[in-house]
Write a sequence for this structure.
């Protein structure tokens, strides 16, 4: 497989199920919503692939399937470079519903396989059914690995007792400098078991206003404060992140995070300005 992330020397994360992915990828929430932005979105994703951000995250939910279609356009001629992640909506996550949702996603994505298929969040269907469907999809080769999203420690612990639960490869959760609750228990839990934490909204859905600390570290490394915020989420092993950028300018900016190694001084300054909560807090969600 020709993956530009390897050529660019971008660190990789490995799950307990053997999936490997670059630590910096591309989000796609809201892509495909406005047809006038489509060309820019496809160009942004393709530039991201060129720059080694070869993990693309989408979902059947995003823009009612249009995001998956944008991703399909971006992958034309380069499917083998991409570690492709998409998600089933909880309301579809019965056994049969998951199988059907996967087929619809494959059709929109114009591919024969999904590298990582996630349950978007916990819903009314028993998780046993969803995992059974994931197992069946993996056997048929339609998905390579599966996982969950928006699961806290108690949910993850419960999963380990369900058939197939120990094959969960990744948990996608919200994480950015101003939302650090997962560092207390969830990240250590996942790291110790080889469940890759996929950090979403590393720029707080675009609401991140760079603090003086982010700006200071950015000047030191000659990158943007946004790149610092993204690099900070992947400063330790076991975490990958998927910022969304709809323009080539933002993608270029964010790509710098892939190889930016924060020093202990940088991390200490950022810690002081953006502290971890001093007690357990409920999982933050978008
Ligand atoms: N599993 C879940 O429940 C869940 C929930 C939320 C998100 N996600 C996934 O995670 C991805 C990322 O999260 P997100 O989309 O919520 O938010 P995000 O990545 O934190 O922020 C995206 C916003 O930041 C802006 N931006 C990107 N790069 C920038 C830069 N260098 N300078 C200034 N602004 C910049 C983008 O603007 P432009 O678009 O104009 O470039 C966009 O408005 C999503 O796209 C999705 O794939 C998953």
């Amino acid at each position: 497989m020709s993956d530009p992330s390897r050529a660019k020397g971008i660190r990789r994360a490995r799950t307990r199920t053997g999936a490997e992915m670059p630590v910096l990828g591309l989000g796609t929430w809201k892509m495909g919503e406005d047809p006038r932005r489509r060309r820019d979105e496809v160009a942004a994703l393709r530039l991201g692939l060129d720059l080694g951000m070869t993990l693309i995250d989408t979902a059947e939910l995003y823009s009612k399937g249009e995001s998956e279609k944008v991703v399909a356009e971006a992958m034309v001629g380069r499917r083998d470079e991409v570690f492709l992640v998409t998600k089933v909506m909880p309301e579809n996550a019965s056994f049969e519903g998951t199988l059907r949702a996967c087929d619809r996603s494959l059709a929109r994505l114009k591919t024969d396989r999904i590298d990582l298929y996630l349950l978007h969040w916990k819903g009314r269907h028993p998780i046993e059914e969803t995992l059974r469907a994931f197992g069946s999809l993996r056997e048929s080769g339609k998905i390579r690995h599966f996982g969950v999203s928006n699961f806290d420690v108690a949910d993850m612990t419960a999963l380990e007792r369900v058939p197939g639960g120990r094959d969960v490869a990744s948990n996608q959760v919200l994480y950015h400098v101003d939302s650090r609750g997962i560092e207390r228990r969830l990240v250590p839990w996942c790291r110790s078991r080889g469940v890759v934490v996929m950090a979403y909204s590393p720029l707080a859905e675009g609401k991140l206003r760079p603090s003086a600390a982010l700006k200071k570290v950015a000047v030191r490394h000659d990158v943007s404060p946004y790149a610092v915020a993204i690099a900070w989420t992947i400063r330790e092993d076991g975490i990958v992140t998927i910022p969304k950028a709809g323009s080539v300018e933002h993608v270029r900016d964010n790509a710098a995070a892939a190889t930016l190694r924060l020093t202990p001084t940088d991390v200490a300054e950022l810690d002081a300005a953006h502290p971890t909560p001093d007690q357990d807090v409920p999982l933050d969600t978008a």
